[in-house]
């Protein structure tokens, strides 16, 4: 995938127009993070929240093109639906089946998915630099899980075990990508045994997210001592799962790094410049 686009389109004012489409959108930290990044690099432009209802999505994508927006992020509930309004879909996004980033190259709209690659970059930088031959246990098989599991298959893992409340979703995902890595789909009843041999445990479910911060996605006594435990949730920054894991000597990794790095990849596609990741992270931290 070519991450650095040569030609950068800008709005009629000469400023780079960027935004995020979602419903709801008021809570999004993306505008504050990307505006800080534009400012840090001295790029004239603006990143705006775009509250788009499902019935308005097609029109919003047309307006995005005609107004000369350079790029957008796409969030809940539009990540799948938006694909049919784009001109091209990057191979990784097509496999994952969802788009979170649009790049406008002179009127040609391409959809990417930076969630998974952003997550893996963050996990490797912050918690586990080498994922090869590791047994990775993923709790959950929803949209976020698809993105990160697809990215994890490129890291030569020993085994990926996917455990989901709805077992059929875990099994289907494992079947779909069995040629990419050794993946198995399991029911919650099989979780204890799988977790016992995990090197890396990743929670992709929403269990433990604000306001249910006392919830934990598995009994804490199942967590092996000293492994890597990662949680995609970033509100709260340290979930109960991560607190308990830390007490057991585990290396813990929260969801903020994924959020920042999915944004960093998108920023790099739009601007052709390396994203100021630390400034983006500090800006998001300061906005809570
Ligand atoms: P999703 O598509 O709705 O999937 C939710 C997953 O959680 C499914 O596997 C679901 O299981 C499972 N689940 C939900 N409630 C559960 C419960 N009470 N017990 C057991 N399993 C439960 O959502 P998503 O988009 O993948 O998001 C999942 C989480 O990732 C959210 O907390 C979200 O905030 C976080 N996330 C973080 C970032 C980031 O940048 N850090 C980015 C994206 C998402 P079933 O299939 O059985 O329903």
Structure report:
It is a single chain. With 288 residues, the protein is α/β, with parallel strands linked by helices. It folds into 2 domains: 3-114 and 258-283, Leucine Dehydrogenase, chain A, domain 1 (Rossmann fold); 116-256, 3-Layer(aba) Sandwich (Rossmann fold). The protein contains 10 helices and 12 strands. The chain has helices spanning 30-41, 57-66, 91-96, 115-126, 143-152, 167-176, 191-196, 240-247, 256-271, 277-286; strands spanning 16-22, 45-51, 71-74, 88-89, 101-105, 108-112, 135-139, 159-164, 183-187, 200-203, 228-231, 251-253. The strands form 2 sheets. It has a 6-stranded mixed sheet with strand order 2-1-3-5-6-4. Helix 4 (115-126) crosses helix 5. The two termini are 34 Å apart. Mean pLDDT is 94; it is low at 1-8. NADP nicotinamide-adenine-dinucleotide phosphate binds at residues 115, 140-145, 164-166, 169, 204-207, 209, 232-234, 255, 258-259, 262.
């Amino acid at each position: 995938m070519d991450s650095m686009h040569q030609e950068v389109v800008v709005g009629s004012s000469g400023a780079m127009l960027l935004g995020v489409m979602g419903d709801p959108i008021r809570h999004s930290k993306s505008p504050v993070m990307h505006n800080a990044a534009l400012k840090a690099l001295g790029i004239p432009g603006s990143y705006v929240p775009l509250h788009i209802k499902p019935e308005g999505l097609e029109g919003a994508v047309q307006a995005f093109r005609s107004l000369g927006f350079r790029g957008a992020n796409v969030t809940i509930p539009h990540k799948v639906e938006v694909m049919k309004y784009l001109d091209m879909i990057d191979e990784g996004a097509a496999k994952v089946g969802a788009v979170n980033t649009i790049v406008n190259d002179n009127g040609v709209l391409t959809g990417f998915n930076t969630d998974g690659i952003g997550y893996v970059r963050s996990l490797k930088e912050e918690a586990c630099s080498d994922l090869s031959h590791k047994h990775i246990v993923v709790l959950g098989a929803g949209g976020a899980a698809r993105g990160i599991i697809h990215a994890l298959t490129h890291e030569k893992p020993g085994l990926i075990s996917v455990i989901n409340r709805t077992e059929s979703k875990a099994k289907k995902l494992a079947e779909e990508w069995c040629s990419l890595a050794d993946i198995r789909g399991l029911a919650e009843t099989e979780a204890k045994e799988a977790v016992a041999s995990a090197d890396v445990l990743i929670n992709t479910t929403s269990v433990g997210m604000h306001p249910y911060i006392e919830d934990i996605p598995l009994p804490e006594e199942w967590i092996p001592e000293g492994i890597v435990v990662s949680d995609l949730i970033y509100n709260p920054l340290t979930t109960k799962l991560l607190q308990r894991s830390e007490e057991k000597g585990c290396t813990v990794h929260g969801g903020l790094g994924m959020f920042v790095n999915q944004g960093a990849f998108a920023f790099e596609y739009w601007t052709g410049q390396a994203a100021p990741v630390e400034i983006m992270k500090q800006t998001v931290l300061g906005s809570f």
